[in-house]
Write a structure and sequence with these properties.
The chain has 378 residues and is an all-alpha fold. It has helices at 23-38, 41-70, 76-96, 104-132, 138-144, 148-159, 166-188, 199-226, 229-251, 253-257, 263-289, 292-298, 302-313, 320-338, 362-377; strands at 162-163, 342-344, 355-357. It is found in: Membrane.
């Protein structure tokens, strides 16, 4: 038996519960959607990998500074030479035992001159940045070193056919704003002690080094995604060892002869080499699932990690701007990783000239495609 209301008396109906339309509810819903977009599993994994690379760079910076300040040892080429030797002993030897097109001799016969150029770019990028500290200021190095990011994006556009969206340019601007905040914190904390002997020469060296870093990173992304990580590391280890060894004998033989070796200095050299080895070994893995540009944005925090360790090791003064700088850089990095880039078809391709999803931020793209695959299956 159904209950009915009398014709003359309409019983008021209680409103059915629905989604909250209050301003607080709208903001809460928006916040949940933004959080779900920015902090997915793959983005968090990318952030963690990027910060692991930053810690490796931080280790190289701390060991180098400790050698320079405590033991008066300034031999960046010797330190790089030891790192390249480790790559040679591990990855180049592995290539020697491969068969077919992955064999060391086969690669050398077909592409030896390309890897010589890559080795020169990689070795000289490391050397020029370190050498620039003798001529210019810390502020100039930190700011001008960011010049490599727009160079890297331009090279990726023309060589890798990467196509960026507006959010990517905004993200890069946010990261550079964070770097500017860090430089301001350095000045306020009194870390800008060195005025430089020739600022113009130092600034030119930084720009050249940053540009060579961009060339090396674009080549690394191409080789890792098109060929193999092992081939890149093996060839860099081979030619990096040869080039840095020759340059070592030319520019640093007097500095090496003047080192008063003991176990502490040797331990610092070993620590530097291990940090560089880990950096070279892990960076291709991160680049393969993201891109060279996103990796370079992520490692902008390396200087901040060095500053935090320097509070205890070198007596640096703390500034709240360091925390703000770290937060701004991480915000830009997360924004960049939140939206995948696209890859355009090469002009000479027989395919129609349309853009398609590329392999940059691969994990994010797979995650975005899951709902579409599920709906098609249904």
């Amino acid at each position: 038996m159904e209950a009915t209301s009398s014709p003359g008396c309409d019983v008021p109906r209680s409103p059915s519960p629905g989604p909250s339309t209050s301003p607080a509810g709208s903001w809460a819903g928006l916040l949940r959607r933004v959080t779900a977009k920015l902090f997915t599993r793959n983005i968090l994994k990318t952030i963690a990998l990027g910060q692991m690379l930053s810690l490796c760079i931080c280790g190289t910076a701390i060991t180098s500074q400790y050698l320079a300040e405590k033991y008066k040892v300034n031999t960046p080429m010797l330190q790089s030479f030891i790192s390249y030797c480790l790559l040679f002993l591990i990855y180049t030897v592995m290539l020697a035992f491969q068969s077919g097109s992955d064999n060391l001799l086969y690669i050398l016969k077909r592409k030896w001159w390309k890897y010589i150029l890559l080795g020169v770019a990689d070795v000289e990028a490391n050397y020029l940045i370190v050498r620039a500290y003798q001529y210019t200021t810390l502020t100039s190095v930190q700011l001008l070193d960011c010049f490599g990011i727009p160079v890297l994006m331009a090279l990726s556009w023309f060589i890798l056919y990467s196509r960026y969206r507006v959010i990517h340019f905004i993200s890069v601007a946010v990261c550079l704003l964070g770097v500017g905040t860090m430089v301001g914190a350095d000045i306020l904390a009194g870390r800008e002690d060195n005025s430089g002997s020739d600022v113009l020469i130092g600034d030119i060296l930084v720009l050249l080094g940053a540009s060579l870093y961009a060339v090396s990173n674009v080549c690394e992304e191409y080789i890792v995604k098109k060929l193999s990580r092992q081939e890149f590391l093996g060839m860099v280890g081979l030619f990096g060892t040869a080039i840095s060894g020759i340059q070592l004998l030319i520019v640093e033989y007097k500095d090496i002869a003047s080192i008063h070796w003991d176990w502490k200095i040797a331990l610092l050299f070993v620590a530097f080499a291990l940090c560089m080895f880990c950096l070279y070994s892990f960076m291709p893995l991160v680049i393969k699932v993201t891109s060279a540009t996103s990796v370079n944005l992520g490692i902008l925090t390396a200087d901040l990690y060095s500053l935090f360790f320097g509070l205890f090791l070198f007596g640096y003064k703390f500034s709240g701007l360091y925390i703000l700088s770290f937060s701004v850089i991480m915000l830009g990095f997360v924004l960049y990783c939140s939206t995948p880039t696209r890859t355009a078809e090469p002009a000479e391709s027989s395919l129609p000239p349309v853009t398609s999803i590329g392999i940059d931020n691969l994990g994010l793209k797979l995650e975005e495609n899951l709902p579409e695959v599920h709906s098609e299956a249904l």
